[in-house]
Structure formats: C-alpha cells, structure tokens
Amino acid sequence: MLTHLLQSNAIGVFPELDDTAFVHLVNHRLATRSMPPLPEALRDAPSTPRLDLLRKATCNPRPSPRYHRLPEDASQSQRLFFRAAHFCPMEDQRGLPIRTVGLFNLAEEPCVAAFTAAEIDLPNIRACHWTDVWTGEEGMLDGAFQTTLPPHGSRLLAINEDAPAQLLDADARVRAATLDGNRLTLLFDDACTASLTFRTPPRALAINATPCALPCDERFLQIRLPAHATLDADF
Q1: Most exposed among 38, 46, 130, 166, judged by the fewest C-beta atoms under 10 Å?
Q2: Is 22 exposed, middle or buried (0-12, 13-18, 19+ CB in 10 A)?
Q3: The pLDDT value given to residue 214
Q4: 67 and 180 in one domain?
C-alpha cells in the first residue's frame, strides 16, 4: 500500500499503515515538495500523535517544487534534498535551515544511508548543525552524515549553519527570515500558536516591535502570534 500512496497525491492519517510506513510517506511528501494542505475533515479533529505530526508537516503546503535527487549509492537508498526549511517557502533564508535532506530505505532489509556536505552543495561550510525533524535529535554535520534505516524507514533532517542565531525547527509557516548580526527576524502569515526550536536561547523577543515575556534559558518556545506577525529574536 505504501508504494501506491507514494505515487498518489493523497495525505491523511492512514490507520492501515504502520508508523514506519506512515512517516516514510510524510517525509517523502516533504522531501519532494509535494505536501498538500491538511484535508478539511481533519482540521478540527481531536489531537492524536499521528494527526499532530501531520499538522506540523502540512504547515507549508505545496511550496516551490524544486528538489534534488542524489545518485543511488551502494546501499540503494533514496536521497533527496532541497534548499530551504520544510516550514518555509523561500530558499536560502539565513537563520533558518539552509537544506532539508530526506533519506529513504525502499528495501525489505535495513540499509545504511549517508550523504556528504558536498553532495548537498555545502562544500565551503566547515561545519553544520543537523536536527531530526520528528525526533528532535541533533548533532554536527562535520563533512558527512550516516544512519541505519530499518526496512521502509526514513529520516528527515534540517541542516543549519553552526551559529547561535538559528531557528532549527517550527510547526508553523515562516514566510521569510532575515539575519542581521545577532537579531533573527521571522515573518509569519497566519495567526497561530507556533512551537519554535532555536539553536540557543534568545535573550529577548518582540512581536510586532512589542517586547514579550521570555522563559529563562529556554530554546524551545511556544508563542501565540497574530496574523501577519513579525517576530524579532535577539541572541
């Protein structure tokens, strides 16, 4: 069934899929920039782990379809990447993930999937920071990354510059971002409660130029934003 769904445009909670296959499908939609909007029937449905994952995955539906497919390596894993955050329609926004990488095992046996910084067009950056979009695991990409995937397993990794003023992940659409010294400015379109993960704790936050309360030494924040908000984070 997974193969059939990968060839379709459908998205949903698909209870007939196990968790590994479901995440594979969601990651493939994101990595190929083909994620549709959340189906209307699910928008007000009660929260479940699978639906919460889907709500995050559909926060930036149908962005630019530009993505890149790396050649198959010895493991025969599928390796895709694009030059943006999964939650932003714009490429190369400083302060956001500058690459998103999807790794997919299409086989019935475990495989080792890997990529290098040069393969995703980051040959001149000495070190990058990676974040697993779903588990929150983090690490340093010092030239290369390698992971073992179970049968039909997948991973979606956000790649940031190794710098303090960085937004690693979000579950709300960020229309654009600018980085000016130690100030990261994020532009949002829709009113929402956004869960944001920063590289380091911000020293100060302001929404539409109005300072707001900030938990001490906290880099995981939930922030209520009005429509067309500008969020300034100082580091």
Answers
A1: 46
A2: buried
A3: 86
A4: no
